[in-house]
């Protein structure tokens, strides 16, 4: 079965129901590809119709996981153009991920040109509906068909895109989270701080356990003591201390075992713009529970490119559970969420080179 692709018949159609666009299902018509070989380095990148890539059964990327990816989004701007959020920063993180797995780094300008070409050609079906965005998925994998235990000599870069929506409801539903006390998402000195192919699958079992405990998401703790809160699998965490103008937002420090999110970084800037102090601070599970009981912590939320800012309502830890604030989305969470979507959609001033504007391709489809 191949993935559904939004055909040209859909272009200019009536704005679809945001709920129709589940994450990672509705791909656009094109992709950008580029190969790398040890002899010649990077070959030219080009835009072509989206389709299957051939694969030798001995392909290194599949066997040994020498593969890295990124996730960034394009949004319809207030003036009708399309803007890609922090593309340059995603290009740099893509290089950092590649370096860690001894892979060739895609030059920043090639990454940005791929973004421009794919968005210019395929952002057409992106309607003005603020619930929708175009998610870009760059991927780099070892394509050499040889199973020696050494970095491959051939690689393939591909960038695909899909329409996604549903995450930006005006009043987001808080999620319930389940604390994983025994497994680890990442190890010290390992690959927890990059986006590599092994990022998510090791968390699926925990996700199933969370679901059977009635929770939507897993909270990962530090891998050494299993005591300090780190992140939520595909999203970083923030905690709000206090309220009103005296609120302070804190997030776990970059220990090397959490992924330094670009949304996380963006929220430091936006918190300052809203007059709130922010910083990095360790928080133990007991500390979290006690601070919720005493009222010191008033809100908690997760953040990432895919789902933006998502409030956390309740926490389950073994046989104990507690509510954060009144269990609903808090005012600081909602204000930061609006500040972020306003910048992403060109409704608020760009803090500095965050929005890469792309104009639609002149060619007719
Ligand atoms: C991608 C990712 C995030 C969020 O990063 P953003 O740059 O904000 O999208 C957080 N945690 C993990 C494990 C991730 O893979």
TrEMBL record:
Pfam families: Aminotran_4
Keyword Ubl conjugation: no
Record EC number: 2.6.1.42
Keywords annotated in UniProt: Amino-acid biosynthesis, Aminotransferase, Branched-chain amino acid biosynthesis, Pyridoxal phosphate, Transferase
Metabolic or biological pathway: Amino-acid biosynthesis; L-valine biosynthesis; L-valine from pyruvate: step 4/4; Amino-acid biosynthesis; L-isoleucine biosynthesis; L-isoleucine from 2-oxobutanoate: step 4/4; Amino-acid biosynthesis; L-leucine biosynthesis; L-leucine from 3-methyl-2-oxobutanoate: step 4/4
Cofactor(s) listed in the protein's UniProt record: pyridoxal 5'-phosphate
Catalytic function, reaction form: L-valine + 2-oxoglutarate = 3-methyl-2-oxobutanoate + L-glutamate; L-leucine + 2-oxoglutarate = 4-methyl-2-oxopentanoate + L-glutamate; L-isoleucine + 2-oxoglutarate = (S)-3-methyl-2-oxopentanoate + L-glutamate
GO molecular function, one term: branched-chain-amino-acid transaminase activity
CDD domains: BCAT_beta_family (cd01557)
Family designation: Belongs to the class-IV pyridoxal-phosphate-dependent aminotransferase family.
Record-given protein name: Branched-chain-amino-acid aminotransferase
Organism annotation: Streptomyces polyasparticus
